[in-house]
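quick one: zinc ion bound model?
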Amino acid sequence: MTAITHHTPDALLAAYAAGNLPQPFALAVAAHISLCLDCRAAHEAHLVSGGAVLEASKVEAVSEGLKSNVLDLLDAQVVEKKVYQRSGIYPGPVMEALKGKPPRWKSLGMGVRQSILSDGREGSVRLLYIPSGRAVPDHSHNGLELTLVLQGSFSDETGRFGVGDIEVADQSLEHTPIADEGAPCICLAATDAPLRFNSFVPRLLQPLFRI
Amino acid sequence: MKQQPSQISSLTTYMLSVRDDRDRTAFALLFDHFAPRLKGFIMRSGTGAGQAEEIVQEVMLTIWHKAEQFDPERAQVSAWVYQIARNRQIDVIRKENRPLPEELGEDPSAEPDASQILAVEQEAGQLKDALLKLKPDQRDIIEKAYLGELTHQEISSQTGLPLGTIKSRIRLGLEKLRYELKELR
Ligand SMILES: [Zn+2]
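yep, here:
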């Protein structure tokens, strides 16, 4: 595997550690950390900062019964949350968003496909499948977009993005990412704006398109 | 309770006793330390006392049940508890399930490296001292950031944030991770 050269910016890691990223970004960052030791270490460093804030917090006395309640509950059965493992090119957090199933690809035309993982008020996150030589579908250009490469690579005016690389693009970035030679590029694309489709899809058709 | 080199903090020692020996006395001591701090921390973001205690209860139970994930060579106890607390707060208040990174496949039962544990603790201690020495308005910003009250845009516009003071620990952690991954291959 080639080295990761495009990382998650520190402010996004800090907001992720504090639990204050919109869900689509949190998924992209969790997936990048799963692939990147540098960002894993930087994220853990932010947790240490959070721990220092916790340690320095004003102490509030807890109710009298709380401790004995907790001690009584230590032996109670707990429902273990299912942990999703990495599967092929998809890191654990992506497998969780896929609920353990393979992506359900829908054609966007020109051989490009997408699989929407979530789309709502907090933004959207989807998998994109782009054959070599094709352009990555239009971004929302309406906020921030994080694109994490899971297979193959793409290039644009700012550089080349291979497996594990994450591109951070805001509306000020004019770029045309194109999938490189070789295996189709599969990436995870997260935006903090609702999805907007390419201009050839009339706006009214958008809800239909998702079915 | 476990015998550890005396320099290792009592919190880490309690946590290792909980992890390796399911030691309830050690757990009760962790409760005494963390429960009031967690309650204060959670209430700062506007949560009422009642709901804060529910979250404290869940965090403490998670500490007990997930103790096997505690690795003192990578995370100091407060950092580990902080992450659990933020996750529980989000689950409870936003009714959201936060995406988490994959766990590293390590063997935490391997003989702990006391010097690495000490290094992690030392850096966390220095960080806490640095936090306490900040001017009140600067400290307020840091606290807001880690309480989850600042967006990533707001964090990136705070140029003076000493978020990078822990670079040395980052390096330390990285070297260890690289070493472990080499071992796995
Ligand atoms: Zn990275």
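The first helix of chain A runs from residue 10 to 17.
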